[in-house]
Amino acid sequence: MARKNKILVPEARQGLDQLKAKVAGTADPEQAKYEIAQEVGVPLKEGYNGKLTSEQAGKVGGRLGGNMVKELVRMAQENLNKNQ
């Protein structure tokens, strides 16, 4: 599946993929969105998902992205506390 989003530091892609897999509780970052979709009850499948509503798509993307941000903040706070 082609990636449409562009990150500012391309070298960080692998780390972001690992974080995505970690917050979704899966080993494969490509399967993370399907894992989250199953948790929130959204019928996401591989391939075309044009019948999903914006609300359903937002539940998956919001949950995954939100959990990634929470984990990044937690890691930063931990790092700050360690350096003090």
Automatic annotation (TrEMBL):
Annotated GO biological process: DNA topological change
PANTHER family registered for this protein in UniProt: SMALL, ACID-SOLUBLE SPORE PROTEIN A (PTHR36107)
One Pfam assignment: SASP
Protein name, as recorded: Small acid-soluble spore protein alpha/beta type
Molecular function terms, GO-annotated: double-stranded DNA binding
Keyword flag Endoplasmic reticulum: no
Role: SASP are bound to spore DNA. They are double-stranded DNA-binding proteins that cause DNA to change to an a-like conformation. They protect the DNA backbone from chemical and enzymatic cleavage and are thus involved in dormant spore's high resistance to UV light.
Matching InterPro entries: SASP_alpha/beta-type, SASP_alpha/beta-type_CS, SASP_DNA-binding, SASP_sf_alpha/beta
Keyword DNA-binding among record annotations: yes
Xref: Gene3D superfamilies: Small, acid-soluble spore protein, alpha/beta type-like
Family: Belongs to the alpha/beta-type SASP family.
Keywords carried by this UniProt record: DNA-binding
